[in-house]
Amino acid sequence: MAQIIDGKTISQQIKEELKEEAGRLREAGIEACLAVVQVGTDPASTIYVRNKRRACEYIGIRSLLHELPENTSQEELLALIEQLNEDPKVHGILVQLPLPKQMDESVILKAIDPGKDVDGFHPINVGRLCIGEKSYLPCTPAGIIELLKRSGITVAGKECVVIGRSNIVGKPMSLLLLQENGTVTIAHSKTEHLKEVAKRADILVVAIGKPGFITREYVKEGAAVIDVGIHRNSQNKVCGDVDFEDVRQVAGAVTPVPGGVGPMTIAMLMRNCLEAAKETVEQR
Ligand code: GUN
After folding, report:
1. Do you find a cis peptide bond into 88, omega within 30 degrees of 0?
2. Is pLDDT of 284 > 90?
C-alpha cells in the first residue's frame, strides 16, 4: 500500500516557517502585501481567491482585493495593473485566471511588473526558469518539488513523466524536474501508448484534467504519483485525475485530492510574496 503524501501537513509546516519570516520582515519595517485581482464571479475563482487571502491573513501578509465586474474592459484592467505596478506598498500582484473572453490573457500577464509577478507567469520569469536563472516559480510545480523533497523522494536520475503541457503546470513542471536532474518526458492528449509511457515513470505527475483517469494500469509498481487534478465526481465529492483507491494498491507514494497538491500551491504563492517583499529591503 502506498505512502500517502500529506500536502496539508507539509504546507502547514511551510506556512509556519513563512509566518516567522513575515514577522522578521515586519520588524525590519516591511509589511508584505499581495494585491489580488478577480474579474467576474466564477465560483471556483472565488473559492481560490478566498483561500489565498486566508493564507495571507494567517501568515501576516496584507492582502488587497480588487473585485471587478465581468464586463470590465481590457483597458480598465490594464490601468489597474499599472497602478499596482507603481504602488511601492504592493509587492505581489495576482490576476486570477481564467479571465472573461473580452480580455487577452497574454496581454494582461505581460503587463504585470516581472518583479511583482508572484504567479511566475510573465514571459521574463518563464524565460529565466527555462535558462536556470533565479525567478518567481509557478506555484503548483514549485509546490510539487517541495512535496517530493519533504517526503524524501529524490528526483535526480529518475524517470519523470508529466502528463499535461499547460503553461501553468505541465511545461514549468517539466523544467523544474529537469533542473532537479530528472529524466523528463512530457506526455499529453495526443501521446500514443500513454499507458506504456506513464508506466515508465518513477515519478508520475498528472495534470490531464479528466476525473479518475489514471488507474493502476498507468502506474509502475513503487512509483510516486502526484495528482494535480481537481474535480467534483458524480456524487459531488472532490476528486483528482487519479483513481486514488486503485492507484494506491501499486504506487509507492501518492497524493490525495483534496489535501495533496492544492494546499502546496497556496504555500508557494505566500513564499513568492515574501520573496518579493524581501527584494525591496535588499534594494534600499
Ligand atoms: N487559476 C487557476 N490557477 C491559478 C493560479 O495559479 N494563478 C492564477 N492567477 N490563476 C489561477
Report:
1. no
2. no
